[in-house]
Amino acid sequence: MTERHYENFPVASIALPKSMRKPVGLIYAFARQADDFADEGERSREERTALLNGFRRELERIRNRQEPETALFAALSAVIGQYGLPLQLFHDLLDAFTQDIGKKRYENFTELVSYCEKSANPVGRLLLILYGVDSERNRFYSDKICSSLQLINFLQDVGIDYAMGRIYLPQDEMMRFGISEHDIASKHAGQTWQALMAFQADRARQMMLEGAPLAKAMKGRFSLEMKLIVLGGLAILDKMEKARWDVFRNRPRLERRDWLQLAPRALFSGSIFDGK
Predict the structure, then answer these.
(1) Mean pLDDT per 10-residue section of the chain, whose length is 276 residues
(2) Is 61 exposed, middle or buried (0-12, 13-18, 19+ CB in 10 A)?
(3) Which end is more exposed in the chain, N or C (fewer Cβ atoms within 10 Å of the end residue's Cβ)?
(4) Cα 91 from chain centroid?
């Protein structure tokens, strides 16, 4: 199961009501498996595309009220019908993963955000519907959080992505900070690299804080889960900074002890979730 795109999303699923864990799990299973098709193994470009198209055909079977051919989609069909989940959001995810097969560089931040709008934001929007809090305001908050989490994943995985031939750092900003692809290939984490990464992290942090009020729009366990996700994303940025942005040798991730430390903050701290 890939750790690239969705490592930071379902971190707090234990906080969810039991009735929500299966629907949420199915959405993540869909996204992770499709992401694996684009990222993992020795498959050719044509084989990866064919696998993603197979997922598209399953979605069309659901749209046409036909029986899906796989167990995953049979279960997903029931959830889609029960909660009225838009099929287009699932198609958006597939479009992002298909883009991963062919697009390896992003000219600027606008291009990168456009990718996040399909690779990450649909997951948050699906969850808003599941949780019964879908609104224009909450979609704005959710998009900020999801895009931030995606950008944080990119920062965590610079070396991993480069090994797959991809760079998810804006090319114009790399040039501005004097960073070349050779610096990434050689895992050079000097001052110019640190400056670039700090710039990227500050922007991701600001996006996360802009979305943080979503937790206050939710109630009970949903609110707790969202607070933990926000705090978890910020904690990963803190870990990167502590390691002087050397993600090549110190890839940050959250362990059980980190969540134990974050839980009291999620329960009792509120200022960042007030949008202050």
Answers:
(1) 48 72 92 88 89 98 97 98 98 97 96 97 96 97 97 96 95 98 97 98 98 93 91 96 97 88 83 76
(2) middle
(3) C
(4) 16
Decide if 181 contacts 167 (C-beta within 8 A).
yes
- Expressed in angstroms, the distance from the first to the final Cα of the chain is 37
Specify whether the CB–CB gap between 252 and 156 falls below 8 A. yes
Contact criterion met (CB below 8 Å) for 217 and 190: no
Tell me the residue length of the chain: 276
Q: Domains for the chain: give ranges and CATH numbers.
A: 12-102 (no CATH), 105-276 (1.10.600.10)
Alpha helices in the chain (DSSP H): 18-39, 45-63, 71-83, 87-102, 109-119, 121-131, 136-156, 158-163, 171-176, 181-185, 191-211, 214-217, 220-242, 256-268
